[in-house]
Each structure stands twice: as C-alpha cells, then as structure tokens.
Design goal:
27 strands; 471 residues
C-alpha cells in the first residue's frame, strides 16, 4: 500500500508595472509498505517471493523565490531555491547473506539526507537592432549524508555499517551573445566558466575511514545558428556539459576492477540539426531534428558483487537519433504528437568495468511515441478542458554489472482527464492506465536478486481528483 500526501503553494506579487516577484513552497511525503516490483513466475507472475518486506519513505520539501524587473538598460532576473530530501528504504539482501557473515537472512537499510541551495542572477538586453546579450552568475551548494546498515533484519547484530558525507559547491559565470548577420540568419554563441568542488568523508566498518577532496574547473561552450525562412526556421546547435568528480566509500575492487576509490568526471558533447515550422496561419506547428551525443567517461550508479552501491565510469558512449513533434489546431480541438528514436551504444567500455563492446547504453529506450487529443470549450461560466493521451515507451537495456543484464520490453501508457476553471477555482479529474495494462516498466528492482527474475508492472488503473484555488 502507498500513502502520498503533500502541499503546494505559489504566489505572484506585482511590485509595480515593471517588477514582479514569484514564490512557492512544496512539501510531499510518500510511504510504501513494500516495494513495487514482483518476482516472475509461471504459476503466479506477480507473487512476492521475498523473505523480508521492503518498506520505504520519501520526504521532500522546498521553497523558491524569483524577482523579475526592468532596469532600463537591461532586464534582471534573480532566483533562489532551497530544498531538503529524506529517503529511507530497506532491501532484502538474503542472497548476499554469506558475504556479510550472516546466515540465511540479511537486510540492507539505507538512509539518505539531502539538502541543496541554488542561486542565480541573470541580466539580458539588446545592443541596437541586431544584437542581444545575457550574462549572469550561478552558485549552488549540495550536501548528501548517507548511512548503510546490513543486519539480519530481525534486530540482531549489525554486520556492516557505512557513513558517508559528500558536500559539493558549484560557481559559474555565463554569458551569451546573439547577432543577426542578415534578416534571415542569426548566430548565438555563449560559454559557461565553472568550478565544481567536492569534499568527501566516509567510514565503513570493514574498511575504515577515508577523506578526499577534488575539483573540476572548465568552460562549457554553446553555439546556435538559425536561418529563418518565414514559416520554417532551420537551426543547428552544439553544446558541451560536465559532471564533477566523486569518490566511492567502502572497499575498492581487486586487480584493477571497479569500484575505484576515485570517480572521474564525465563530459558530454551534443549536437542537433533541425527545423521548426508554423503553417496554416499558425494552426499547424512542429519540429523535426536529428541529434548526436558523445559521452566520455560515463558516470553511472552500479552495484558490486555483494549488492552494495557504488559509482562507476562505464567508458565512452554515443547516442544518435531522430526526434519530431507536431501540433494541429482545429477549432476547439488540438491534436499533438511526439516521437523519439534512439541508437545508444557503448563505444569504448572502461577496462575496469567491461560491459562488452557491443553493449547498448543502459536505461535509454530504443524509441518512444506519444499522442494527445485536447478539447477546450466554455460551459456557462466555466472553461472546460478534456484530454486523452496515449504513449508507448520502447525497449531498453538495464545493466547493473558485467554479470547482470536484463531488458525492459516496453510498455503502453494512457490517461484521460477533464478539468474545469471557474474564476479562481479549478477542479480536475483524471484516470491513468485506462487499459489497466501490467507491462514491465523500467526498474532496477532489487540488486541482491537475479535481474531476470524481477518485474515492475505498471500501476493499475488509477483515478485522481484535484481541487485548486488561486488567491
């Protein structure tokens, strides 16, 4: 059984005609009596064949505020947000009991406490009729405290305990400039100068304490070229991004095999070539593109031989694909669709975590499609919106380790909803999984059990009712 409750508030204050302030708060708690995956079997395909239940709790709360205004010579946008996130979960680790010195039954209890603060100030403006610019500062702090404990799950002695604390801070200066070379051709270039700092402290009962510091300093460029031919705009873009380095707690792998103590930063270089169009008096809009992304030293969360989590560098990978979306307006009706085709592959596996040269990038579906039909009308004093959505997420590989490979075969999604707004009040009713499908969705399941035995069926047909008010 799952219990979910929360609160969401947002407000907008117009200080004067040129300045506005927005703020919001969100709090949510999710309690699960047991995990949502099942063990496959011929006689009873969704029977839980586990010795221990796996309850979990997920608490989240956050606050944000932003200010927008006109300085005369530039537009200013400043925003700040703070959030905290608590996660507590238990896993049945019985298959790995001997590896922890336990007999027959073992449980892993994991507690995560995360906090983050993000701040950004951005200025933007024009330089004459053909040039535009934006520049700003970004700063964030992120702290993650995690405790792992392995025991018999019955209140007995603790076989392994691990505490770790990771503190990351990032500062960045970014700037963009656009110039209309001709009436049809515009070039925008930008860069982000950043520093990511990391402080790591950990202690494990079978490995002792460890402390490490690291940092990454770099520049992430961006280039966009647009050619506007009236109803069709052709574009090309190239971007670069990074994730900072890290450390693994606990034991390291033997003989040059991961997990290593240090985790290398990864880098992604992405490019896209496409076109946006607006036809039939703006009633038919859409976009089509081809894309490629090269990823170096891919960071990915994995599990060691005993089922304990660590971060690996998988090697280099590439994803190529096609993407398209379209929207067609006919009176009160709107028909929209979106499709993506992916060709993910691991081009150079890391020798310390060899998944094989022909491995596909895990957790990336081969393709996905989605379509929606929306009708909007006035009924007395109410604005009524009806919506039907269907989608399909294609197959994807799930690779936990070099010896643990499984595959999600794909699944169908569906939703219908009706909403009405009268003044400041709104009500919405919706039903998810209209066809009551039980297809296996993407999930890592339980790392201590063979992955081929695990199925995570879709949530059964579910109804929702929401009431909102604006003040």
């Amino acid at each position: 059984r799952m219990r979910r409750q929360g609160l969401r508030l947002s407000t907008l204050f117009r200080i004067n005609p040129a300045w506005t302030m927005k703020a919001g708060f969100l709090a949510q708690t999710i309690d699960l009596d047991d995990s949502q995956y099942a063990t496959s079997g011929v006689d009873a395909p969704y029977t839980r064949r586990r010795r221990l239940s796996e309850p979990s709790r997920n608490d989240f709360d956050g606050f944000w505020v932003s200010v927008d205004g006109d300085l005369g010579w530039a537009r200013l946008r400043a925003s700040s947000s703070v959030q905290s996130h608590g996660l507590d979960a238990r896993y049945d680790a019985s298959p790995s009991a001997p590896g922890f010195g336990l007999v027959d039954v073992a449980a892993l209890d994991q507690s995560d406490d995360l906090s983050a603060a993000v701040h950004e100030v951005r200025l933007s403006g024009d330089l004459g009729a053909r040039a535009s610019w934006s520049a700003g500062l970004f700063f964030s702090e992120y702290t993650h405290n995690r405790t792992l404990s392995v025991s018999d799950g019955l209140g007995g002695a603790v076989a392994l305990q691990q505490h770790r604390r990771d503190h990351l801070d990032e500062a960045a200066l970014f700037v963009d400039a656009g110039y209309a070379v001709t009436d049809d051709l515009t070039v925008t270039a930008g860069a982000r100068l950043f520093r990511i700092g990391l402080e790591h402290r950990s202690e494990t009962t079978d490995d002792g304490p460890f402390a490490g510091d690291d940092q990454l300093i770099g520049v992430a460029p961006r280039l966009v070229v647009e050619y506007d031919r009236g109803p069709i705009v052709f574009y090309a873009l190239a971007t670069e991004g990074y994730r900072g380095p890290g450390f693994n707690a606990g034991s390291v792998g033997p003989g040059g095999q991961q997990p290593f103590r240090a985790v290398r930063s990864d880098e992604i270089v992405a490019g896209e070539l496409g076109a946006r169009f607006s036809l039939l008096d703006d009633r038919l809009r859409g976009r089509a593109a081809v894309f490629v992304a090269d990823w170096r030293d891919i960071q990915s969360d994995r599990f060691d031989g005993r089922g304990l989590p660590f971060t690996a560098n998988l090697g280099d990978g590439r994803n190529r694909g096609l993407e398209g979306e379209v929207e067609w307006l006919v009176g009160p009706w709107t028909l929209d669709g979106h499709a993506v085709v992916n060709d993910p592959e691991l081009t150079r596996p890391d020798p310390g975590f060899a998944l094989g040269s022909d491995s596909r990038l895990p957790a990336v579906s081969d393709f996905s499609v989605q379509a929606g039909l929306v009708h909007e009308a006035r009924l007395a004093q109410a604005t009524v919106r009806s919506e039907l959505r269907l989608g399909y997420v294609g197959p994807s590989d799930i690779a936990l380790s070099p010896t643990s490979m499984s595959r999600s075969a794909g699944y169908l999604t569906s939703q219908v909803g009706v909403s009405a707004e009268i003044g400041r009040w709104g009500v919405r009713a919706s039903v998810d999984n209209l066809l009551n499908r039980d297809d296996d969705t993407f999930s890592f399941g339980n790392p201590f059990y063979p992955q081929g035995d695990i199925s995570t069926p879709q949530q059964p047909i579910t109804g929702r009712l929401a009431v909102t008010a604006r003040f």
